[in-house]
Amino acid sequence: MADLDALLAAAIDAMGKSRPTYSQFPVGAAILTADGRIFSGGNIEVASYPEGWCAETTALSHYVMGQGGTITDICVIAERLPRCTPCGGCRQRLAEFAPPDARLHLCADGAIVQTLTMAEIFPLGFDGDVLTG
Ligand code: THU
Q: Which GO terms describe its cellular component (predicted)?
């Protein structure tokens, strides 16, 4: 599917722009919305190690600032892993914006290795509805 090819290419491109200065562990993420737009990002590390952040978080910030719509697909790729699953914090962040049926594609070596839904990768996540309702 052309959109998925473009999404994977965007994740790989973002991985190339990441800043894994201290871990040497480049990660790229890309988010596809229903209107065909793609928002991507890489992990960014700083000298005070805990202050760095993940690729998924960079991609989400572009998604929010770009006023993206419904998220349909997400690609995540890490150069040094055969299958990079988002960390716990990023699962919570992704679930804030991506619906339970959004597809999460775990990628490696220029290909999608496994596809899950957000509900599958993040069951029983904290539901913030109580905070706004
Ligand atoms: N990292 C991500 O970018 N996404 C994840 O889901 C897991 C970890 C980054 C954070 C840090 O820059 C590096 O990988 C090593 O943990």
A: cytosol
* pLDDT given for residue 3 in this prediction: 95
Domain boundaries, position 45: 2-131
* pLDDT tens, position by position, 88-105: 999 999 999 999 999 999
Indicate the number of domains in the chain: 1
Q: Which atom of ligand 1 is nearest to the CA of 90?
A: 6
Nearest Cα residue to 57 out of 45, 49, 48, 69? 45
CATH number of the structural domain spanning residue 59? 3.40.140.10
What pTM was estimated for this model as a whole? 0.96
Residue nearest to ligand 1 atom 10, measured at CA: 54
pLDDT at position 40, please? Answer: 98
Expressed in angstroms and rounded, the spacing between residue 70 Cα and the centre of ligand 1 is 25
Q: Rounded to whole angstroms, what are the CA distances from 12 to 6, 33, 79, 95, 99?
A: 10, 18, 9, 22, 24
Q: Is the CB of 15 under 6 A from ligand 1?
A: no
Binding-site sequence positions for substrate: 43-49
